[in-house]
Amino acid sequence: MKIKKILVSQPKPQNEKSPYFDIAKKYDVQIDFIPFIEVLGHDVREFRKQKVNLLEHSAVIMTSKSAVDNYFRLAEEMRLTIPIAMKFFCVTESIAYYLQKYITYRKRKIFFAEKTFDELMGIMARHKNEKFLLPVAKVHKPTIAKKLKKEGFSFTKAVMYETVSSDLSSLSDIYYDMIVFFSPIGITSLFDNFPDFQQNEKIIAALGKTTANAVKKAGLRLDISAPTKENPSMTMAIEKFINEHN
C-alpha cells in the first residue's frame, strides 16, 4: 500500500523546520494536522473547591505546556502576582522556554531536565526544602505523584484543566492512508466522532506505550510505534515506513 495522505492528530507545528514538512516534501505526501483533543481549563470557582493556595508554594513542577497555560491563567483570574522568587522545575527544555510566554525568563529561577522526570527529581533534590505545586489534568497518570511521595518531597497536586475529545464534525470522513496518534484520549476521540470507524487498510501509528496499548484495546491494528531504539521519534518511524512501502 502506497502512503499518499497522512492525518496527524495534533496542531500544525509552528516551527517551519518541523520534520513533518520535510517528509511531505521529500516523499510528495499530503500531511494534514487536525487536533483530536482539546484542553479545557477549570474555572476559578471550580479550582477553589480544592482549597489550594498558589502562593503558599515556593516552587512549581511543570510537566506540560497545558500546565503552564492554566497555572498562569488561574493566577491572573484570581488576581495573584506570582513572586519573582518562585522557582519553576520543568520536565523538558521546551516547556522551560515556553514560560517566556508569561514571565521574563532571565529574571526567574528556572530548572529543567533533558529527558526524564527522574532526572528532574535529581535536580529538585537540591531544593528539597521547597514546597512544590504540581498542576495536573483531571485525568492524569499517578506515576509522578507516587515518585514525589516516595522521595519525600513536600508537594500539592492541583487539578487545573481537563482533556476532552474535539468536535471533528468538519471532517466528513477518515479518508487518510495513515493516522498518527499521541495519547489514549486521541483514540477515544476517534470513536466519539466516528463510532463506526473501520481500520481496514489504514495504517495506525502511536507514540508511547500507553497510546499503543489504547490502540490495541480498541481492537485496532498497530502498524507503527515510537519511540524505539531504531526510531527514537515518530517522524523517523513514519519516514522508515514510507521508505519501505512507497
Structure, explained:
This protein is an alpha/beta fold and 246 residues long. Among the domains are: 10-36 and 235-246, no CATH class; 41-162, Rossmann fold (3-Layer(aba) Sandwich). It is built from nine helices and eleven strands. The longest helix is centred in the first third of the chain and has 13 residues, at 65-77. The protein is elongated. The relative contact order is 0.16.
Summarize the model shown.
With 246 residues, this protein is an alpha/beta fold.
Main attributes of the structure:
246 residues, alpha/beta, Rossmann fold, five-stranded parallel beta sheet, 9 helices
Please render the helix and strand layout as text:
Elements lengths: L4 E4 L10 H9 L2 E4 L3 E5 L2 H5 L10 E4 L2 H13 L9 E4 L2 H6 L10 E4 L4 H8 L6 E7 L5 H8 L3 E12 L12 E4 L2 H10 L9 E5 L1 H9 L6 E3 L7 H12 L1
Helix pairs in contact: 1-9, 7-8
- Helix % is 25-40%
Count every beta strand, where a strand is a DSSP E run of 2 or more residues: 11
| Residue runs with pLDDT of under 50 for 5 or more positions | none
Strand order of the largest sheet: 3-8-7-4-5-6
Rg estimate, integer Å: 20 Å
Biggest pleated-sheet summary:
6 strands, mixed
Which CATH architecture of the domain at 41-162 is right? 3-Layer(aba) Sandwich
CATH class of the domain at 41-162: Alpha Beta
Kindly name the structural category.
alpha/beta
Span between termini: 7 Å
